[in-house]
Amino acid sequence: MNIPISIPLDNDGFMRRECPNCLKQFKWHDGPANEDAEHQPSASAYYCPFCGQPAGLDQWWTTEQVEYTRGMAAPAAMQLMDDELSKAFRGLNSKHVKITKKGSFDKPAEPDPMVEPDDMIILASPCHAWEPIKVPADTQAPVHCLVCGQAFAF
Ligand SMILES: [Zn+2]
Ligand SMILES: [Zn+2]
Q1: Is residue 92 part of a domain?
Q2: pLDDT tens-digit map of 86-96
Q3: pLDDT per residue over 45-73, tens digit each?
Q4: Minimum-distance ligand to the CA of 124?
Q5: CA of 148 to the centre of ligand 2 (A)
Q6: Cβ distance 16 to 120 under 8 Å?
Q7: Around ion ligand 1, which residues have CB less than 5 A away?
Q8: Residue 87: what pLDDT?
Q9: 46: alpha, beta or left? (left if phi > 0; alpha if psi -120 to 50)
Q10: How far is it, in rounded angstroms, from Cα 10 to Cα 33?
Q11: How many structural domains is the chain composed of?
Q12: 18 domain residue, yes or no
């Protein structure tokens, strides 16, 4: 089953992320932020700007994104089950036996689309300036480079 779910970016093209280790939120740029970034090898892990711990690229979903994804998947899954069941019932029918399926599952409503506010400030590390991040405006230095984990002041 393939359900297209789009997580919104803010107006600068940044996606909200949550560290699986310290649970703090920041944003990273979705896709290459500039021409330099296009020529870099793609990372297999990123480092948290706050605690400096690395995690795989699919480990950074925020609680809201996970809930939204679940909320979008549930109605689609129900629809699929309903379709499959209808097909199964059709297959049972013969000249002598008539089986019909009445009604269908109550589909849960899809959640409202997510909105990404243009909050946080942009930071670029001195070592990997082509991979900028956004952190809350009250963040204290140092923070860690997303790409290599090196702490830097700003
Ligand atoms: Zn962290
Ligand atoms: Zn770096």
Answers
A1: no
A2: 888 887 777 77
A3: 999 999 999 999 999 999 999 999 999 98
A4: 2
A5: 4
A6: no
A7: 19, 21-22, 48, 50-51
A8: 87
A9: beta
A10: 13
A11: 1
A12: yes
